[in-house]
Amino acid sequence: MQFTQTPPPPLHELTSFPSNINPMNKNQMLRTRQWPGFQTSKSLGSFGDANCMEQLLVHCANAIENNDATLAQQILWVLNNIAPSDGDSNQRLACGFLRALIARAARKGTCKILTGAVDNVHITTHKFSIIELTGFVDLTPWHRFGFTAANATILDAVEGYSIIHIIDFSLTHCMQIPTLIDAIANRLEGPPLVKLTVAGATEDVPPMLDLSYEELGMKLVNFARSRNIILEFRVIPSTSSNGFASFIEQLKVQNLVPANNGIEALVINCHMMLHYIPEETLNPFSFNNTSVSSLRTMFLKAIRSLDPTIVVLVDEDADFTSNNLVCRLRAAFNYLWIPYDTVDTFLPHGSKQRQWYEADMNWKIENVIAEEGVERVERLEPKSRWVQRMRHAGFRGGLFGEEAVMEVKNMLDEHAAGWGLKREEEDLVLTWKGHNVVFATAWIPS
Prior knowledge:
Layout: H1 11-14, H2 26-30, H3 41-44, H4 50-65, H5 69-82, H6 89-108, H7 115-120, E1 127-128, H8 130-137, H9 141-157, E2 163-170, H10 177-185, E3 193-201, E4 208-209, H11 213-226, E5 231-238, H12 245-253, E6 264-271, H13 295-305, E7 310-316, H14 325-343, H15 352-370, H16 383-392, E8 395-397, H17 402-412, E9 419-424, E10 427-432, E11 435-445
Parallel strand pairs: 1-4, 2-3, 2-6, 3-5, 6-7
Antiparallel strand pairs: 7-11, 8-11, 9-10, 10-11
Helix pairs in contact: 4-5, 4-6, 4-14, 5-6, 6-14, 6-15, 9-10, 9-17, 14-15
């Protein structure tokens, strides 16, 4: 999630335009061609306005999709001059989309002249140490919200069980587990045996860790031992590309999930991982059509067949599933302004952590905008659609208790003003300045 050590020069230095497009001032260039449905330069006002930049990005995306190289290059030139990578939060956000559109244009061949520039703006990812990743996820409530809400409701669900089996589908490499082990160790009835089975996903999706899951497992086992808990750790190599089908099959073959005998609690913890299961939903209720094979639906039904004690599903509350590039661009632009806005409240300009944080967002933007097919893995769905999926798979909502709500509120008090919590029926939602960010839902078999 870190840019190359030597920052690339501005795109206007990397890219030479055709002879018929001179590096003129904005008003001169805007007059080169009328942009259909777009305001004239006289009525645009500030080019730095977020709404204006969104319109520019939309029109650029349309030009790329229509193979209009001249118009696409004109708009890219404007965006390059009004969206520096070190500007304010709106400019940095727009710069991320600018890079993604350049990558898409080069791959489509719309702007062949940009092909050489793409390599120079490529985002390289940072591999975190355990200490770095712990600090990284603690920067904002983005992940901590889900950790806190999930752990509180899991503790309630496993009360009285002498064996707790946790199946962890998590984007953050088990960073949630130490806090859960701490809480389990302190329960009144004494520590149980804890089994932890991890879906070791093979995709290179940030944040990435600089050690193997086997090494991570040893650290977790040693940590649990220091809390007087016996932890059995298993990792099953798997992939979201087939809906974790091999993972579920191995669980059954290895008999890692025994029949519910009243002794062992089975916890399914899904933290920002399930949206990597392939799905392209144009109709939010299309999965109710039994003739349509949906990997997400199949996964949830497979999870239901395990008869879990509780399932916790935490994810980002946005919709990046549309087949239409402009729809995805608008959805991503109107959601991903949030991390760029929040970063200004807690990380100084130029810090390594800020580079890592924003490179993570830039990776997401590029995947949503520049990629298609199996390469486009960032396919977020909103909470409302996941709720329908869970109900259709045979689950009913489990209410978060007041203790869980208080835990989340206390956690939010440690962060900048602007973060908030709201309840939507049986679910909890993290907000930033009133906008939904991440949701947490809890489920039990119906």
